[in-house]
Amino acid sequence: MAGANSDERGTTERVLALLGLLQQRQVWTGPELADRLGVTPRTVRRDVERLRTLGYRVHASQGAGGGYRLGPGQDLPPLLLDDEEAIATAVSLLVGAGGAVADAGDAALRALTKLDQVLPARLRHEVRALCDAVESFGGGRTPVDPKVLVTLARACRDKVEAGFDYPSGNEVRRRMVEPYRLVASDRRWYLLAYDLDRDDWRNFRIDRMTDVSARTRRFRPRAAPDAATYVQESVTSRVYPHQARFLVHASADTVRAQIPASAAVVRPRGNGLCEVAGGAADLDVVLMHVLLLGHDFQVLDPPDLRRRCRPLAERLLSAGTTSPVQETTES
C-alpha cells in the first residue's frame, strides 16, 4: 500500500512538473519533455492525457516545428509559478490594489488574497521587502500595510469578525466589527463594517487602524448598504457640519472629471444635468467650488445657501468693476 501511494505521489508530482514546463514555453517536443522529466516519450504521452482529463487543452502537432502546446481552456486553470514569478505577481497585484491601474484595485486585492493564501512564508518576506521599496507620487492613495489589506480582505471573504485599534476623539479604542467590504477611493482605503459595540454600520479608514486581526468566529451577513455609495457619501458629506446639493447644467461624466470622488457625490439627472452633493465646515466654500466648475447651476439645499448667492455675486461684480486703489509711498 505504501508503495502504491508513493507511485501515485510520484505521478502527481511529474504531471505538475509537466504542466509547469508547458506554461513556460509555447512549444515543446516530446523528446525535450522526456529529457527534462527523466522519463520516456511514452510516459510523456500518458501524462499529457492526464492533463487533458483535468481540463487542460494540450495540443499535439507533427512535423517540423511541431510538438506539445498548452492552449487556452474554457475555464481559467490553476497556474504554476516559480518563486520569482510568484514574487513578481504579488508585487504587481499590490501596486494594482494601490490604485496604479484604473478600476483594478478591487480585482487586484481579491487576486492577492488568493495568492497570499498559498504563498510560502519564505516568499512573503521577500514580497514585503520589495513592497517597502516602492513609492508613488501624484494622486496616490495614503499608504497602508499590505498585510492589513490582506487580513481584512480575508475576513470579508470568510465572514469572520475582525478587531483593530482605532482613534476616537483623544483616545484609541478597540473596535470589534463584522467586516463587509473594502472600498478604495482616489485617496484612501476604507472598510465598511457593522460595528458590534455601536450596533450600526460604520466605515473606517484603514490607514488609521493598528493591531488588526481576524477572529475565527463567523457571522451571518446582514442586509447591508451599497458599500461604495455609503462610504462616498460618508466621506463627502456626513463628516461635515453642513451639507449642500446643487443642480449643475452639465453631464455627470463631465463633472466627475472635474471633482475628485472623495470631495463630492455626482448623480446624473437626465437631459444633460447632474446633481452634486457635498459638505464642508463653511457653505461658502462649497458654493465657490461649484462656481469654479464653470457651469450654470442652481442651489437645491439648504435654503440659506440660496440667500448667500446674491451677496457673493455682488462682491465678485464689485471686485471686477471698481477701480483699484492707487498705492501711495511715503517720502
Automatic annotation (TrEMBL):
One of its GO terms (molecular function) is DNA binding. Coiled coil: none annotated. InterPro entries: CBASS_pafABC_assoc_protein, DeoR_HTH, HTH_11, PafC-like, Tscrpt_reg_HTH_DeoR_CS, WCX_dom, WH-like_DNA-bd_sf, WH_DNA-bd_sf. This is DeoR family transcriptional regulator. Keywords: DNA-binding, Transcription, Transcription regulation. The lineage of its organism: Bacteria, Bacillati, Actinomycetota, Actinomycetes, Streptosporangiales. Residues 11-66 form the HTH deoR-type domain. The keyword DNA-binding applies. Pfam families: HTH_11 (PF08279), WCX (PF25583), WYL (PF13280).
